[in-house]
Amino acid sequence: MLHSRLRPAPRRNPSTTTTAPAAPALGFHDADESAYVEEFPEDVFGAFLPHLFPDDAPSFHGDPGQCLLYSSPRYGELEIMIPSYPGQTGKQSEEVAIGLGKEEGGTEAKEERQLFAHFLWSAGMVIAEGVENADCQATENDSVSQKEAREIWSVSGETVMELGAGAALPSLICALANASLVVITDHPSSPALTGAIEFNLKQNLRKPQTSQMTTVSIQPHEWGTLTDSFSQSYRGTFTRVIAADCYWMPSQHENLAQTMQWFLAPGGRVWCVAAFHTGRAIVAGFFEIALENGLEIERIFERDIVSSDEEGREIRREWVPWREDENPETMQRWCVVAVLKRREDTGDEIGR
């Protein structure tokens, strides 16, 4: 089970906790293990919930400011800090995330961008798992699923950009999987840019297997705003663009598609992964906008994020924009995985 990889990290001693001032160079070593204290009973119990209730597939994980341990079969345990926005409670964030409420006072567009960085999203875990599965040496005995994982998710030597990164787990895994460049972006007002991403890099990119050839940077970026120095410098740079659960606000769909087009390198691919907690129709609406903006769908399917088959392989089904018999309980166990590229009739021209 994908979500069983997560459990609460041992809580830190408040007197020794610090916020990383900047993203570190790879190979950084400065972990203060004495900052940890014993795990609380509720944290231990929480770690077993995915095993006790395997059919309960949350779309998002963690609380604002919480640290989680992500158990990676290839890279070991990674400590992931969930971003925290001052004055925002986990309950308020959760209500907005599942569409039950709006923030009081202020326009939704800016506030909800801030709120949605407060979790580690299952869609990001799907991408992280895919990249990890692809980061292995090819052999003659590889299964069909192993070959397909490398075909879709391989990042070794690639240039990667993550949009709406939040806690930036996919970017972190891409750096560990030897991408040549990883640029982590989020909205300029996102709480993720105030320390959580830097913390996650510092804690996890000091592992021995991290490539010294990988360059990692963090950049604020507002979708559709393409005249700033960052956008001008990186136009057409990225062979892999990550967008995990970035589709909940239809008013931003065109801006998001334009950003994908702008930064995508010739021959590059966009990874679009989304759960259906905000509604299947909203996700389908983004694909329509993407097609109108010069992108096309190379492959698309739905994946069960709860169960696997008898041989441990992921369960898939055909993507459809609407399912007559779907309800909130059955909907939450599936996500859509799509690989986009530029439409052939646009050639390799960058931008629109």
UniProtKB/TrEMBL annotation:
GO cellular component: cytoplasm
Annotated region described as Disordered, given as residue ranges: 1-26
Biased composition (Low complexity): 12-25
GO molecular function list: S-adenosylmethionine-dependent methyltransferase activity
Pfam families named in the record: Methyltransf_16
Compositional bias ranges of the Basic residues kind: 1-10
Protein name: Nicotinamide N-methyltransferase
